[in-house]
Amino acid sequence: MEKKIVDQFSEFAIPSYEQWREVTEKSLKGASFEKKLVTETYEGISLQPMYRKEDTDNLPFLQSLPGKSPFTRGTKTLTNGWEINQEICVGTPTAFNKVAMHDLSRGQTSLNIVLDTPTKRGINANEAVSEVGKAGLSISGVNDVVDALKDIELAHVPLHLNAGANSLPILALFIAHLEKGERSVEELHGCIGMDPIAELVTNGRLNYELEDCYSLMADVTKWAIENTPNLQTILIHGNVYHDGGSSAIEELAFTLATGVEYLHALITRGVDIDKAASSIRFSFSVGSDYFMEVAKLRAARTLWAKIVKTFGGNEEAQKMTLHARTSAWTKTVFDPYVNMLRATTEAFSAAVGGADSIHVSCFDEAIQKSTTFSRRIARNASIILKEEAHIARILDPAGGSWYVEVLTNEVAKKAWELFQETEENGGISQSVIKGFPQKVVQQTASKKVRNIALRKDIFVGTNMYVNIEEKELDRLGNDETSQINDHINQVKSRAYISVESLAAISNKTEASIKAAKQGASLGELAKATGRKSEAVLSVKGIRPTRGAIQFEELRQTTNANAEKTGKRQSVFLANIGPIPSHKARSDFAAGFFGVGGFDVIQNNGFASAKEAADTAIASNADIVIICGKDEDYQQIAIPLAKSIKNATEQVTVLLAGKPSEEDQVSFKDAGISGFVHVGSNCYDVLSQLLMKKGVAVS
Predict the structure, then answer these.
(1) H or E segment at 248?
(2) Shortest CA distance to 224 belongs to which of 510, 505, 499, 503?
(3) 693 Cβ contact list (under 8 Å, min separation 6)
């Protein structure tokens, strides 16, 4: 007998959205639906409390498939997941090789080489001693490349390398290394990429003529198309905007505008559109807003496909190669193990969003260079998402979610509007010169910083839920000072050949490779290809920073003062009445002052103003905050404050809560100097209190 399937919900009428909203608004008891249930993002998008199928009815890409234009759902029809593309930030070639060999044998699948500042700028180690090896690998000649890549089979390991404004010197050294070892250059795959706009935006200066950079970009790309067809030559960074505090929309729009400028530069210099587009790789940061970041990556592929199609590129050329790194903005110095959780959720966003390769930040990234342990944890986060959570088995895991589909469309629309505004300003380079992206990013960053100060945006362990007893992270990393000094001395002792200017040579890449094989240094190659000793172009830069940094500086100031004086600034909680009467506000006050590193003196409450005042005075606290119910304040708070101020004038008395303006006057007359509540700017209040107590805030 055939079983009858019973629909358990068939007896219930399906309510309409209007009916649901009507019931919901009644439950809000007069409060605004929009203010209570609609969330406004930094992108200018209003997130609704509920999304429905009809919200997706007119979305242009909804019926698209993975591997098909416009690639919203990904660029592949089959997936092996993403490359585990962890940054290796080690100062000297020999030490780099040791770390790279270790990490590649333990799950890393791509070689992400971070260069130090002199190398990216085309300066030899002996010419910039103070910066050598600080931010990454120092390379001055082909011998350094040989040492760094010893026993690494580049035929089996993709490269990912940000070469700065001019990739030709470093590319020439890598090719010279392969040819001297009699290995085919065709085996090189991945990306050795240049991004002069990112260098200009990050540093505020460029030591090359921008047009010269574009000519070199075209020259290198043409050579790579003929000789290393699986090597991309341009690496566009959205990170420079994200790390400065931008929204997802701003990062996406300015990055796409950079892509358009590079495409135009390549095409006008004779590179076919299909080859030009396929030579570009994008790198985005992935922040803590999970669904927004998923939508950003999906929208990025959609818009890039649209752009390349407009240029005349075929469907294959419309595919975006997308690298994601977990956000530097969200990482903290205090409570650093929380960074493991942050990086994991961000990597999850990148994986679900369809990134082709992912770097997961080491939890100690904001404190020091990575250690064997921190690299292992970061690497394993990606491996677990891939191998144990099986995220890599699904194409477009977020596809079909009404919320994600609508959000992807809204992100794409907003980013396209800002992209068009950038183009109207003359394109990304002219916009940067005019200061347009800098202004836009600064406005968003200021909003974020204010919300962090107000603790609307929460950094666990830094501006909320602080562990005041936290011990400083053990420094497990190796001190590279000795190795770096030895490396600098080796560079000084080498005899490099001089290189005449390559400006007049038509095939600069071949000439540079030949010179590198003969013993030219990175610095000589950079000079010969256009690097000037002084900045050619200067703009207002976008300084990379982190959201938690102002609170970290506040706490570091408190800690330093405690070490100097032997005591912390102390706060006595003058709790009025039994525990239920004061607990909510005393807990709030303890957390509020804890984020500044203050010593909070707690208790179970006092029955009278006299008892509270006597105990507060005896505690020798620098600050007293009165905590209790509003109805108790008139009777107890005023005599309590007067008693404390009469006994010891230098004590600052505060009150937890936000009384009416009329009550504030009477409280201030009694000696209460301020009011602390959920709307208070935590950073401003704490920094002003410290300065009042003679502690300088940096």
Answers:
(1) helix 248-268
(2) 510
(3) 569, 622, 652
Distance CA 167, CA 177 (A): 16
In this structure, are strands 46-47 and 39-40 parallel, antiparallel, or unpaired?
Answer: antiparallel
The residues, any chain, with a CB within 8 Å of residue 403's CB and separated by 6 or more, are 51, 291
Contacting residues for 81 by C-beta, under 8 A, at least 6 apart: 351, 386, 391, 392
Q: Residue 80 carries which side chain, given as an amino acid letter?
A: N
Neighbours of 146 (CB within 10 A): 16
Pairing of strands 537-538, 205-206: antiparallel
List the one residue out of 278, 184, 205 whose CA is nearest residue 540.
205
* Residues pairing with 283 in the sheet: 237, 323
688 falls in which pLDDT band (50, 70, 90)?
A: very high
Residues 6+ apart with CB under 8 A from 14: none
Q: DSSP states of 162-202 as a string?
A: E-TT--HHHHHHHHHHHHHTT--GGG--EEEEE-HHHHHHH
Nearest alpha carbon to residue 77 among 85, 68, 69, 86 = 68
Radius of gyration of the chain (CA): 29
| Rounded Cα gap, residues 262 and 519, in angstroms | 31
Q: Which of 103, 176, 101 is nearest to 146 (CA)?
A: 176
The identity of residue 420, as a single letter, is Q
Tokens describing residue 257: 């505008």
pTM: 0.94
Q: Which of 680, 620, 660, 669 is nearest to 642 (CA)?
A: 669
Asked whether the CA dihedral 138, 143, 149, 151 is positive or negative, the reply is negative
Instruction: Read off the pLDDT band of 586 (50, 70, 90).
Output: very high
Give 208-233 pLDDT, tens digit per residue.
999 999 999 999 999 999 999 999 99
- For residue 673, what are the contacts with CB-CB under 8 A and spacing of at least 6? 652, 653, 654
